[in-house]
């Protein structure tokens, strides 16, 4: 092998083209004489301009603006009775992680302090592959079926006529989807404007599975509780910071890690056995796989699992934070999914978004690359750098058949019943009790801010939409509707 291969042209500081050729002059274009026009042969100029024009990949449709950091997850409690996943195999075991925080509805240039849910997307680089726990800072969501997701997000973006954010679009959707009330209540509470990313909790939100060595499944919800304590911004402070320092949360996270003040979260699970799921559904009328619902802690206590610490900032924001490609479809043996309709849609939607944004070989980028051996027959496509070389690009067919190892990562699957179809539960499902419970849990001053925030956001919408939404507040708790109504009438 040539000893000069891959060696820098002159020294580590020598400027080169992307192909490695030394650049003679980075200040002056090649021209036809001192006053003449620029020549097309100036490849360094052309390459710089071409790359500059292509520096932006499509931004995420949701979660466009975000911050990220590396860290470690350390097991503190034994949950091997529930899962065979090796990252939980022993107390003290550590796994490298990457966590991306984000706002949801804003563009990349929006303010970190806007009233919005926050993405909480956590990757574990395990010895069995990447596991992505892609959630939010809330344990519930606005809708329960992914078929509504594009419509919902369109209402949170810009009106196609005015290109402005539209409260009418937002409240029109919410007022016709009472399932959203639980999350709407959380959004307009103090939790809707967290004080940076370090002072908020994280949730997997969906119902997932854990599978143990015996092939037994339990349903599970993931919780990450901040050790820094919950802190939220008052509405006026959130607006002020949005103008003074729109990157407030990014700055706070980066600076804290840079100075060695590493943020930590305690990781917990809630566990529900399959027989408990049916009994709980029959007793409460709440579908355990409904993303607009939570599992009460008194029925399903939190079980400690470990500690997450963020301790290293990325070296390059674009390469690591912007190009990280997370998907809830990325799991490892011992973990599984559930019939949660929103989760089922996200299993397709997130990976497909990364194929569009970053490319068919996005898993080969350093931030996305598994920390374990990879073996598959996927080849070619833009930016292929897998290193497979001359390896076979097709799977050998076993003429005698193969032993069935179960679905995917050893998931034995769950029993199904009924006839295929489109089942609409509206009118039979309880969309109000949990929203009312959340309202009643809030202290008086937080109730006052919640209802003031809602009234302020609804003031400009048509009366028909106001009345429709007020009826939902009334059903959750008469005091809820009365407070919002009084503030709307007090113009």
From TrEMBL:
GO molecular function: catalase activity; heme binding; metal ion binding
CDD domains linked: catalase_clade_3
Ranges where the Catalase core domain occurs: 16-403
Cofactor section: heme
A GO CC term assigned to this protein in UniProt: cytoplasm
Keyword presence, Coiled coil: no
One BP annotation, GO: hydrogen peroxide catabolic process
Catalyses which reaction(s): 2 H2O2 = O2 + 2 H2O
Assigned keywords, A-Z: Heme, Hydrogen peroxide, Iron, Metal-binding, Oxidoreductase, Peroxidase
Keyword Heme: yes
Name of the protein described by the UniProt record: Catalase
């Amino acid at each position: 092998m040539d000893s000069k291969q891959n060696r820098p042209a002159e020294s580590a500081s020598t400027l080169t083209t992307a192909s490695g050729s030394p650049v003679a002059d980075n200040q002056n274009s090649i021209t036809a004489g001192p006053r003449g026009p620029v020549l097309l042969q100036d490849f360094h100029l052309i390459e710089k301009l071409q790359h500059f024009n292509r520096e932006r990949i499509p931004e995420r449709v949701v979660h466009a603006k975000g911050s990220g950091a590396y860290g470690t997850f350390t097991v503190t409690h034994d949950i091997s009775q529930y899962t065979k996943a090796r990252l939980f195999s022993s107390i003290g075991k550590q796994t490298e992680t990457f966590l991306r925080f984000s706002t949801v509805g804003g563009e990349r240039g929006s303010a970190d302090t806007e009233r919005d849910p926050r993405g909480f997307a956590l990757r574990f680089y395990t010895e069995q592959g990447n596991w992505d726990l892609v959630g939010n800072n809330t344990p519930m969501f606005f809708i329960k079926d992914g078929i509504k997701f594009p419509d919902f997000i369109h209402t949170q973006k810009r009106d196609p006529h005015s290109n402005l954010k539209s409260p009418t679009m937002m409240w029109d959707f919410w007022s016709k989807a009472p399932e959203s009330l639980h999350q709407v209540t959380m959004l307009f509470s103090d939790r809707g404007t967290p004080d940076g990313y370090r002072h908020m909790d994280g949730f997997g939100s969906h119902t997932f599975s854990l599978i143990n060595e015996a092939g037994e499944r339990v349903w599970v919800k993931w919780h990450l509780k901040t050790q820094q304590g919950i802190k939220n911004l008052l509405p006026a402070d959130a607006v002020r910071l949005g103008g003074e320092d729109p990157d407030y949360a990014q700055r706070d996270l980066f600076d804290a890690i840079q100075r060695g003040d590493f943020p930590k979260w305690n990781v917990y699970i809630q566990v529900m056995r399959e027989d408990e799921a049916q009994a709980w559904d029959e007793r409460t009328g709440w579908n355990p796989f409904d993303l607009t619902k939570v599992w009460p802690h008194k029925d399903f206590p939190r079980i400690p699992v470990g500690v997450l610490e963020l301790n290293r900032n990325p070296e390059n924001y674009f390469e690591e934070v912007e190009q990280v490609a997370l998907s809830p479809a990325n799991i490892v043996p011992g973990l599984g999914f559930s019939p949660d309709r929103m989760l089922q849609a996200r299993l397709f939607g997130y990976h497909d978004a990364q194929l569009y944004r970053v490319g068919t070989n996005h898993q080969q980028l350093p931030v996305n690359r598994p920390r374990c051996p990879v073996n598959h027959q996927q080849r070619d496509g833009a930016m292929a750098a897998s290193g497979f070389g001359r390896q076979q690009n097709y799977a050998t067919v076993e003429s005698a058949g193969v032993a069935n190892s179960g679905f995917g990562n050893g998931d034995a699957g769950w029993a199904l019943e009924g006839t295929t179809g489109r089942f609409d539960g509206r009118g039979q499902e309880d969309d109000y009790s949990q929203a009312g419970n959340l309202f009643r849990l809030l202290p008086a001053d937080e109730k006052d801010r919640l209802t003031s925030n809602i009234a302020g956001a609804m003031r400009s919408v048509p009366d028909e939409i106001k009345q429709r939404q007020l009826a939902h507040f009334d059903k959750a708790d008469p005091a809820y509707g009365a407070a919002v109504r009084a503030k709307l009438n007090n113009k």
